[in-house]
Write a structure and sequence with these properties.
13% strand; alpha+beta; six-stranded antiparallel beta sheet; three-stranded antiparallel beta sheet; 17 strands
Length: 689
């Protein structure tokens, strides 16, 4: 468990705070209010999604703050941060301000999103796995628990979760017993700072970065573990390995496994046991906690069916009694699992262990006789079938595939992690997982017995359909931005820039255009980013992806797309982007046959481009109308030419054979007159009048 002790704060003899790091207002500034000292890292305050640095409040010099510089490739909980900026919660740490700041990095100066945060008063209650602040029952019940409950009630009422409730993330000033403050819960993926003991049994099986946003019940479970840790003065289960603790939690229940031989005061015993119940239906809700605070007894509720197998199952040398542990063991030992399931008798045995309920029926459909023993089933197909079996064994658990373990609502950070690694093998496996036939099936199994999770299942299947299409604006890139709505666009064109909104996308494109975009203004990442944020963009992106459209018409489609984004985001003039688009569109003028119309089109294009208003530029051009009119008038001119040519030929045909001289003279005059009329007509028509 990472320590969050604010070591930059040095208590002096008078009990005040001395801050040697903030002697001079140096560093990177934010609107005249804050500066970040990138030369003074605070590694002890780093999180999985951000690096911490010393900072200074310029507007309020007495206010002690620090800066979190966010990693653009790791999704953080921006929706929580924005809520806390707009409406701070007194006993919960939130950013005072956020802004994109240019930061020096080993690769040169680059843009980064920076959160400026006030250092909580006092020290964290834990340092590492041990208590750092002496704890009494009165301090816990009269101050810390009510403060945490007040903060969580306020946060949950906003439809948000904290997902970082740990003893080392709670701060207390000993000279002010009312100062209990819950620390940062927004700068990293949900649950990423937790030791597994702070996660429910369903979520602790998932990878650290993919545990999911969770629900209020997950916060309450972590609160129960936190209270237990504060009473014990140590992190529960710290004397066991992660595997030993997990097995103990499954065998004894999380509360008993974490308690060990310790004893709690009666009132706290009821609270912690209620909050740490593994069965979601037995676990205390916020109303039960409020009842407990008022001094009343909370009602007990019936539980759900147990996870125990009807008889132990030996796999990989271990006897498994619990379906969840068996699913985890199968996923971690895929080759042994394939061999295990290739035996027809083993399949029959497993069916009998699970029973004839809906789970048994699904096993029946998935595990036809000799499924894994079939030579026709390749390695990838075997992994897919194994993923389904693991989901059947543990439907409320994570999606398990090729070593991955991802909570259903933790898919976004998991996808971002794969893209950040840029491992082709991992990307290929991600595509397999995201294909509708696999993740759609896993979501269906996961939500079959949980109607409340149906919304998550439908959203996963919708994203899977987007990911399954290979055209521009779709694929894995579309899934990436659909699942992470505030992730910065990862296009190589924006290296070193933060492009997480439509405004920043257009601004970055304007800057790229000024520098000279060598490979155009569109790629798969930009297309997917636009499609995820503007519903009307898909038809325009299809035009970009169509074959034989030509560079000019592609630029027209880009113009319309960016014009709609500019209108939506209310961005000011984009002169460089407009100029770059105009340069791409100009070759279209060659297709106009009338000189005057070509000149009018180019003049309108140049004038509109200078304004930097893409919507005005798009409206002024209307190339389709100009092209249609040009085609129509040229057709009329061609028809007129054909008529005149026919008349000329008619006049040139023979006269009276007895008057040879008159015939020759008449033919000469007629031919000359016809040629003159033809020449005048063509000149008149080609002027476009």
């Amino acid at each position: 468990m990472a320590s969050a002790e604010p070591i930059t704060l040095i208590p002096d003899e008078s009990g005040g705070v001395e801050d040697a790091a903030f002697e001079e207002p140096s560093g990177r500034y934010l609107g005249g209010r804050f500066s970040v000292q990138t030369e003074a890292p605070l590694a002890h305050l780093d999180t999985p999604g951000a690096a911490a640095y010393a900072a200074q409040s310029l507007a309020e010099p007495g206010r002690t703050v620090y800066a979190l510089v966010h990693n653009p490739h790791i999704p953080h909980r921006q929706h929580v941060a924005e809520s806390l900026v707009a409406n701070p919660i007194s006993c919960m740490t939130g950013p005072l301000a956020q802004e994109v700041v240019v930061i020096p990095t080993p690769a040169g100066e680059q843009e980064r999103l920076v959160s400026f945060i006030e250092l909580p008063k006092g020290k964290p209650l834990f340092k590492g796995n041990a208590a750092a602040v002496p704890m009494t029952r009165e301090l816990l019940t009269d101050n810390i628990i009510p403060a945490l409950i007040y903060g969580l009630v306020t946060l949950h009422d906003r439809g948000l979760t904290h997902r970082a409730i740990r003893p080392d993330n709670i701060y207390l000033a000993l000279d002010d017993p009312r100062s209990a403050t819950l620390g940062d819960g927004f700068s990293a993926p949900a649950g990423a700072t937790y030791d597994p003991v702070y996660e429910t049994l369903d979520r602790c099986f998932a990878e650290t970065h993919a545990r999911g946003e969770g629900e209020p019940a997950d916060d309450l479970y972590a609160l129960g573990v936190t209270v237990l840790a504060l009473v014990l003065g140590r992190s529960p289960g710290a004397d066991k390995s992660a595997k030993e603790l997990l097995e103990a939690r499954v065998a004894q229940g999380s509360f008993r496994a974490a308690m060990g031989n310790a004893k709690l005061p009666h009132a706290l015993h009821k609270l912690v046991r209620g909050l740490m119940a593994d069965d979601p239906r037995q676990r205390w809700q916020m109303s039960d906690v409020l009842t407990w605070i008022d001094g009343h007894e909370a009602d007990s509720r019936p539980g759900l069916a147990h996870w125990a197998l009807s008889q132990p199952t030996r796999f990989a040398g271990v006897r498994h009694h619990d379906r969840r542990l068996l699913a985890d063991a199968l996923a971690c030992n895929a080759d042994l699992a394939f061999e295990f399931f290739s035996d027809k008798n083993t399949i029959t045995w497993l069916r009998s262990l699970i029973g004839g309920d809906v789970v048994g029926e699904r096993i029946e459909k998935l595990l036809t006789a000799g499924l894994f023993g079939s030579q026709r089933l390749g390695t990838r197909a075997r992994h897919m079938e194994l993923a389904k079996i693991c989901q059947i064994l543990h439907p409320s658990g994570p999606f398990r595939y090729y070593g991955w373990s991802i909570a259903s609502d933790g898919l976004g950070p998991a996808v971002a992690r794969v893209f950040h690694g840029q491992d082709r093998t991992q990307l290929a496996r991600l595509h397999e997982l995201m294909s509708e036939r696999l993740i759609g099936k896993l979501a269906e199994i996961a939500t079959a017995g949980n109607p409340g999770a149906g919304g998550i299942g439908k959203s996963i299947q919708a994203v899977a359909r987007l990911a399954g299409r290979s055209t521009l604006g779709f694929g894995l890139e579309r899934a990436l931005y659909q699942l992470n709505p505030r992730l910065s666009c990862l296009s190589q064109k924006f290296a070193g820039k933060v492009v997480d909104t439509e405004v920043r996308l257009l601004t970055a494109l304007d800057q790229v255009s000024e520098a000279g975009a060598k490979e155009g203004l569109m790629d798969r990442h930009i297309a997917a980013f636009c499609a995820s944020r503007l519903k009307q963009s898909e038809p325009l992106i299809r035009r970009l992806d169509s074959d034989g459209s030509g560079a000019g018409k592609t630029a027209l489609a880009l113009l319309e797309l960016f014009a709609r984004l500019q209108q939506k985001a209310k961005v000011e003039a984009l002169p460089h982007l407009a100029s770059a688009l105009a340069a791409e569109i100009k070759p279209l003028a060659r297709s106009l046959r009338f000189k005057n119309r070509r000149e009018q089109f180019l003049a309108a294009l140049d004038k509109a481009a200078k304004s930097g208003d893409l919507a005005r530029m798009h409206a002024a051009l209307d190339f389709a109308k100009a092209e249609s009119k040009d085609r129509e008038e040229f057709s009329r001119a061609a028809q007129l030419f054909a008529v005149i040519e026919a008349e000329r030929k008619k006049l040139g045909r023979g006269l009276d054979p007895h008057n040879a001289q008159a015939a020759r003279r008449g033919q000469q005059i007629a031919a000359g007159l016809a040629t003159l009329i033809l020449f005048a007509t063509v000149i008149y028509v080609m002027k476009g009048l």
